[in-house]
Amino acid sequence: xxxKRLQEFVGRAVDDVGAVLGGAMVVIGDKLGLYRAMVxxxxxxxxxxxxxxxxxxxxxxxxxxxxAARGYVSYDGERDGDAVFSLPEEHAVPLTDETSPxxxxxxxxxxxxSVYATDTIAERFRTxxxxxxxxxxxxxxxxxxxxxxxxxLNHLTTDWIPALDGVEAALVAGARVADVGCGHGASTLxxxxxxxxxxxxxxxxxxxxxxxxxxxxxxxxxxxxVTFEVASxxxxxxxxxxxxxxxxxxxMGDPAGACAHVREHLAPGGTLMLIEPFAADDLPGNLTxxxxxxxxxxxxxxxxxxxxxDVGTALGAQAGESRLRSVVTDAGFAGLRRVAETPxxxxxxxxxxxAA
Length: 356
Description:
alpha/beta; Arc Repressor Mutant, subunit A; Rossmann fold; 2 domains; 7-stranded mixed sheet; 14 helices; globular
């Protein structure tokens, strides 16, 4: 046995223990507004931060120490016998600015929520059964939207839609759009806001998510041109010029059936847009920090979700473009091309069969 290699692994494992606990610390900091209260304020003591946030100084002191140990806040020495800490500007954006593509706060929330199902998923390892998305902790449902929304906000209408063949012009002129698996409607509302001449319908199989999306549409003043309906990817109705699957195709029990259903509901010349987690086509290409996060999410969330549904294909979050192409073409589309990408997403356009 290589003793040095053993000790290096122990150090790595201890760091991972700190990371698991650190995720909970981040969610607490977000929930209580601790990070936001530190933005631009320079060095603060635990007493000062507790006073700003209406929290207990003793808890805040321990939280700040834990955050300094992880390198999320800076320890800046002492002032009158009290430790002082600051939040670097470069850390503030990822932890507080949900309009920035660098924001990662939602990833922590969905990660924390997903581990609540650890015992349940361990049992599914034995039985091979699934666990539906809607049964996950509420941190999963809310964190998923917060994780992906910054990317949609910064790229959807400026980069991704313009990269599709003729779609932006159609949306500006007035098109019919289906956002399938819309969740709480973040992507649906962005499309409706950006293209007022178009009519957008969000579909989701979870009634609670549809109810939340309808409320958000009303609050945003968009209820006149966006609607939400309870339906799955293989049961939604209507005819559409653009159908979108935002980070959800791999979660579906029957992704090929979903794509075939889209074919039946696309207007002539229509487009299917897939937004999927970024992945290479082979395992070695996914052995990265992003791949590690996505494989973890896939084990706890995506694979169980698919296995809880009919067919249970279980693509997983790291399916990759090649396998997605097989799913789409097996459903009758002429082809699939990558039109854009980010560190977290692949943006894919399915070639309409009646335009091939």
